[in-house]
Amino acid sequence: MKRMFLAAAAATAPLLVAASPTLAQVTISGSTSTPVQTATANSGQPADVTVAAGGSIGITNPGIDLMLNSNNSVTNAGVLGATGLDNTVGLQVIGGFTGSVTNTGTINITETNTAPTDPNNDGLSTGAFAVGNNRIGLEVVPPASGPTTFIGSITNTGPITVIGNNSEGVSIQAPISGDFLSLVVTPATSSVAATIAAGSISITGQNAVGLQVTPTGGIGGNARITSVTATGPGAQAVQLNGDVGGFVNLSSGVVATGYRGTTRQTNPAVSILYTQDEMQQGGAAVTVGGSVGAGLIISAPPPVLSTTNLDQDADGVPDSLQGTGSISVLGSSPAMQIGAASQNGAAPQAITLGAYSASQYI
Q: Which of 77, 82, 46, 83 is nearest to 64 (CA)?
């Protein structure tokens, strides 16, 4: 079970513009270093919280930038971040509450460490991928007591970047009842062309995971996954060890590698200089250890059969905009690993992969 970070006290951040208590809406339009919680955001009372474009929360001590701990919603169109802090989370959702989470902005939980470029003068970069530990961009955790499921969905169409060992870009440790969406389609109308918004997750560090659903977590609806990159020894891009009630759709590139350099050396004089540190392996790019109710697909646009019909699957989105999924491992680890995770030393449980509709391409 991964660690969970819970703030002990609530604080009201400065630079908040609060609407009337009836609307219970708080907007952060400036910059603050004070953590924000929905339970106390409106002068000690619960409220929906929006970090506007141009707004930011950047804590300076280990903790959580923004927490959903009441029956409210959070939206980040700005920046949530921390630099060089262990045991730190950008956005945390406590299970048992009802609401929604939307991230169209940026979440950066990183560090300033730069590894030595070439300490042994062999022409190859080396050194630690990260120094800090236990950093998470977005997580869902169970409460101390009571119901554990978060009643709602999570949408991430912004970039999440995390640098840290034993860290995660997104970690779902308690179930969510709705969808996890990194891709949102807005169909065309008579006056506006169709658009697609897609998020990304970049994780760097030893034993780090880009998108993690633990055995105690789960996704009740669908999971649309786009652009996950994991770099470091033992790093994995997507790890689904909890059940998904709907489908899992990989709509763009998913990559994992333990290598610092990903271009093969063609000079034999350089190739033989690789040390053990420079040949570390990442983990599997995609692991499916829980059941998937409606199946798993690596997405592709419909085949081009017409030069006049630009939406052959009639989903309101031009075929040229539809995502193409791929899974890549730079190293000797498997690209996809399917098998249930054991719990507390028990034998792995059987998993089920449902059928995915061939008419769904995005």
A: 82
d(CA 53, CA 362): 28
Strand partners, 76: 51, 103
pTM for the predicted model, two decimal places: 0.85
Joined tokens for residue 236: 């994995």
119: which DSSP letter? Answer: T
The distance in angstroms from the start CA to the end CA of the chain is 32
CA 103 to chain centre: 10
β-pairing verdict for 195-198 and 183-186: antiparallel
* Residues 66, 106 contacting (CB under 8 angstroms): no
Tell me the Cα Rg of the chain: 21
If you ran DSSP here, which 8-state letter would residue 298 be given? E
Sheet-wide strand order for 36-37: 36-37, 64-68, 88-94, 135-141, 168-172, 209-213, 236-240, 286-288, 336-338
C-alpha 102/C-alpha 162 separation (Å) is: 18
N residues, the chain: 362
Confidence of residue 268 (pLDDT cuts 50, 70, 90): low
Whose tokens are 């649309």? That residue is 224
What are the distances in angstroms from CA 184 to CA 54, 151, 154, 200? Answer: 22, 20, 11, 13
Relative to beta strand 154-156, strand 16-18 is unpaired
Task: Count CB neighbours of 347 within 10 A.
Answer: 8
Whole-number pLDDT of residue 319:
77
